[in-house]
């Protein structure tokens, strides 16, 4: 019998995890072809490259030698251009046609700039791909005035690096608060005060209308308020899944490619994973595009296992984020902004601490925790909040306790037997294998 | 594999494990850097140490975007300092709250079973912590549950609830 032919489109977190997982199961028996526009790297760590705390070489997740060791045939620098699901054929941008027995679409997402005049001019950067990161790295010097357009999670991952480079920083955000999709208003106020203390200027509720050249600088114009002059403009105004090439493929696409609990699309031998996939959310049970690293990783592993012939059911992804700015850490889990949830929040302004808990009945369905790094990591609370949301067990009398004492997570976690519920949980139904120990 | 078996009824709350752990892990006595942490129950009339269960999934290990967490020869999930970039993803992936971030080194840190000679177990005077061949387990759940009614009656000062 001919060996199974897997084609993986996209060499990011989802694609590489799928490859490694297939090899964990088959040790090299099947044929794997990787099509990737870029050399595999971790986008998550690009800000550390920007801040010079790691070398560029550190961002790569698989060298050509490693891909060879995993017996992967690579088409690097090539993009997928068209998919014929009826014939199981993938066409690349150079005309190459690849036949497959099964296919994984893991083409990720792209940065989207605010649609204003001048956004596409030189000196206005996105920071999403390695190539874009390289473009930014050379531009920023000590004392550069950097204007960061957008105050979402991606923008915030850049703050530490920009401050480490001793840039002067202004953040502008169209919403009335920073981190609008990540934290709520009281939390945002705390973070804004913290950032101002650390010399970061913030302008919220600011609608950018144009970016113009101004004698080697950039002039940013707003619907209201004064112009800003910038040496470098960084736009972090959103991302969209890379799906254009799938037009006419017959795949069911909503906000992403709709996948079932096996990460399979409506076409039986086509899987999707990561930022392009709209899969189950663990907490809501509804389809969602998370576009976060942990979801891409789990999607990739589950898709890989199923492509390797397992019958692996995925319970869904848990939305989670963490970002630190000047040693203030902000983490959120699950349905942290569900307006229908029963919600309470507490602050300890003297300690820069904020916490929000969201409930459905006796289950914790979302949480947010904010605090100084040298404070927050002296407790076990960050992970335990994740554990409580992940386990989804009814907390009985502990719910009332946590209403009175939202900072007293640990006894609730331990006494409710959450550890016992979590210990049998694995994504692949067996212990995980470290990346270096596959094949 | 050998694991840290915790028998909470034996714990007297002496905190020696935290001191020993931080000394073994960092070379200094600073319980805030200990990766085993003693919790009080029932208004500080009983105690129990809590640390990484070295779970089968290894949520920290699979979450790491750069492969900086691996499994040591004694079976512990360990952070490779030269690979860790300090992104903290492992700390939110771990559902047990047992991997931490050190803002000074800008690295994640966790229980590595001290390479097979755990300092906490050696320091424990009552054998509440033992390093033995066993399956990992929820060592504290039942103990804490029996003490829950009194804890639930407690008031913890310092939090302003809106």
Coarse structural class of chain A: alpha/beta
The largest sheet of chain B is: 2 strands, antiparallel
Give the radius of gyration of chain A.
23 Å
Order of strands in the sheet with most strands of chain B: 1-8
Describe the structure.
The complex is a heterodimer of chains A (439) and B (162). By secondary structure, chain A is of the alpha/beta class. Chain A has helices spanning 13-26, 46-50, 64-69, 130-137, 153-164, 185-197, 293-307, 373-376, 381-391, 397-404, 409-415, 418-422, and strands at 5-9, 31-36, 72-76, 80-84, 89-92, 97-99, 102-105, 109-111, 124-126, 145-149, 168-172, 201-203, 208-214, 217-222, 228-230, 232-235, 239-241, 257-258, 270-272, 277-280, 287-288, 320-325, 328-334, 342-348, 353-360, 363-372. Chain A folds into three domains: 5-109 and 240-317, FAD/NAD(P)-binding domain (3-Layer(bba) Sandwich), CATH 3.50.50.60; 124-237, FAD/NAD(P)-binding domain (3-Layer(bba) Sandwich), CATH 3.50.50.60; 327-422, 2-Layer Sandwich (Enolase-like, domain 1). In chain A, strand 11 (168-172), helix 6 and strand 12 (201-203) form a beta-alpha-beta unit. The two termini of chain A are 23 Å apart. In chain A, 49% of the residues are buried. The mean pLDDT of chain A is 95. Chain B has 162 residues and is α+β, with helices and mostly antiparallel strands. Chain B contains six helices and nine strands, in the order βαββαββαββαβααβ. Chain B has helices at 16-26, 59-63, 89-93, 119-123, 141-146, 148-152; strands at residues 2-6, 37-41, 46-50, 69-71, 77-79, 99-102, 107-110, 129-133, 160-161. In chain B, the strands form four sheets. A two-stranded antiparallel sheet of chain B has the order 1-8. Chain B has a two-stranded antiparallel sheet with strand order 2-3. In chain B, strand 2 (37-41) and strand 3 form a beta hairpin. Chain B starts with a strand and ends with a strand. The interface between A and B is large, with 77 and 58 residues. Strand 24 of chain A pairs antiparallel with strand 9 of chain B.
């Amino acid at each position: 019998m001919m060996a199974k032919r897997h084609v993986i489109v996209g060499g990011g977190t989802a694609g590489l995890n799928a490859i490694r997982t297939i090899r964990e199961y088959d040790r090299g028996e099947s044929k794997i072809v990787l099509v990737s526009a870029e050399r595999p790297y971790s986008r998550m760590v690009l800000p550390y490259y920007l801040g010079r705390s790691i070398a560029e070489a550190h961002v790569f997740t698989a060298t050509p030698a490693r891909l060879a060791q995993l017996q992967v045939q690579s088409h690097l620098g090539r993009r997928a251009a068209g998919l014929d699901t009826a014939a199981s054929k993938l066409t690349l941008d150079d005309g190459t046609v690849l036949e497959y027995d099964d296919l994984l679409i893991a083409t990720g997402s792209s940065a989207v700039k605010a649609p204003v005049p001048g956004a596409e001019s030189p000196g206005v950067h996105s920071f999403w791909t390695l190539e874009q990161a390289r473009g930014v790295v050379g531009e920023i010097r000590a004392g550069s005035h950097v204007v960061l357009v957008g105050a979402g999670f991606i923008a915030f991952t850049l703050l530490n690096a920009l401050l480490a480079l001793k840039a002067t920083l202004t953040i502008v955000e169209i919403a009335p608060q920073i981190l609008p999709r990540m934290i709520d208003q009281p939390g945002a106020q705390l973070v804004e005060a913290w950032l101002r203390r650390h010399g970061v200027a913030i302008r919220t509720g600011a609608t950018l209308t144009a970016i113009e050249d101004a004698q080697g600088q950039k002039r940013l114009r707003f619907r209201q308020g004064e112009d800003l002059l910038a040496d470098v403009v960084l736009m972090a105004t959103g991302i969209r899944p890379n799906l254009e090439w799938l037009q006419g493929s017959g795949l069911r696409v909503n906000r992403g490619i709709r996948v079932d609990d096996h990460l399979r699309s409506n076409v039986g031998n086509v899987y999707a994973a990561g930022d392009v996939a709209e899969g189950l959310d663990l907490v809501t049970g509804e389809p969602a595009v998370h576009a976060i690293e942990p979801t891409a990783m789990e999607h990739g592993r589950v898709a890989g296992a199923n492509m390797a012939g397992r019958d692996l059911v995925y319970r869904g992804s848990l939305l989670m984020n963490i970002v630190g700015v000047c040693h203030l850490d902000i983490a959120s889990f699950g349905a942290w902004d569900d307006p229908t949830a029963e919600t309470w929040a507490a602050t300890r302004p003297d300690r820069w601490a904020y916490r929000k808990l969201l409930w459905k009945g006796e289950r914790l369905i979302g949480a947010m925790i904010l605090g100084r790094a040298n404070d927050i990591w002296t407790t076990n609370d960050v992970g335990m909040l994740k554990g409580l949301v992940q386990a989804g067990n009814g907390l009985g009398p502990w719910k009332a306790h946590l209403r009175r004492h939202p900072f007293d997570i640990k006894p609730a976690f331990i006494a409710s037997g959450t550890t016992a519920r979590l210990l049998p949980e694995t994504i692949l139904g067996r212990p995980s294998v470290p990346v270096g120990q596959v094949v | 594999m050998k694991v840290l078996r915790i028998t909470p009824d034996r714990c007297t709350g002496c905190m020696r494990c935290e001191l020993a752990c931080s000394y073994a892990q960092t070379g200094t006595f600073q319980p805030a850097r200990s990766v085993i942490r003693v919790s009080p129950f029932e208004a500080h009339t009983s105690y129990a140490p809590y640390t990484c269960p070295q779970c089968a999934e290894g949520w920290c290990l699979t979450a790491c975007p750069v492969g900086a967490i691996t499994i040591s020869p004694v079976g512990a999930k360990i952070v490779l300092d030269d690979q860790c970039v300090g992104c903290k993803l492992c700390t939110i992936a771990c559902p047990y709250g047992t991997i931490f971030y050190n803002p000074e080194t800008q690295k994640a840190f966790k229980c590595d079973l001290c390479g097979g000679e755990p300092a906490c177990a050696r320091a424990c005077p009552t054998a509440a912590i033992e390093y033995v061949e066993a399956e990992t387990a929820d060592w504290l759940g039942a103990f804490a549950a029996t003490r829950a009614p009194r804890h639930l009656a407690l008031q913890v000062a310092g939090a302003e609830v809106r």
